[in-house]
Amino acid sequence: MTIKDPTKQKEYLKEYHQRPEVKQRQKEWWKNHPDKKKEYDRRYYLKHRKLKGYRKNLTEEHKKILSEALKGNKNRLGKPKSLEERRKISKSRKGMKFSKKHRENLSKALNGRKILKKVRKKMSKGQIKRWDKIGRKPVKRYKHTTGTVEYKNWRTKVFERDSYTCRGCGEKGYLEAHHLKRWWRYKEVRFDVSNGITLCKKCHRLIHWVNSQRRKHGKTFHKK
Question: What pTM was estimated for this model as a whole?
């Protein structure tokens, strides 16, 4: 029996699969081929998992079948990734810039979100492991050091010496004191007037950027 019309073919197939004899044959065939049954269930789940409300309408038996079918799946979610895969992902995401709309949407989605204590502990452990691998500085620069009396006196002396003008562009207004030698490496020269220069905010940022770029290539803007 051959049917050429596609509409008639679909109707005939529906009627054929609803017959009790055909259903019994299918059950016997699936019992004899359990491996193919798992593969079929896995593909069916991957095809229909994006539908809204699909998981809510599932029965307990169907959920068990899906869990057994997805046990040996290599592409399942939540599987730990290898180092090679992580490196490839990090390389592909380097230089990636989000648009303003995307950033606003992210901020709205994360606004008012509270992190659980368990997640905070995991995050802290991850940061500690990272700094253990990279290495820590021998002396840390805390924020409260800029508010001490010694620092303020040193800053005013530097401003008075340079007559409250930026040594880079010559502007007057909001000024900052820059250390020629690093704060955390040279403790003895922290509060020497000869180790400071008055700069505006733009020049101060520019000098720090230049130093960071030249340290990568083995050079520095100021003496070490």
Answer: 0.37
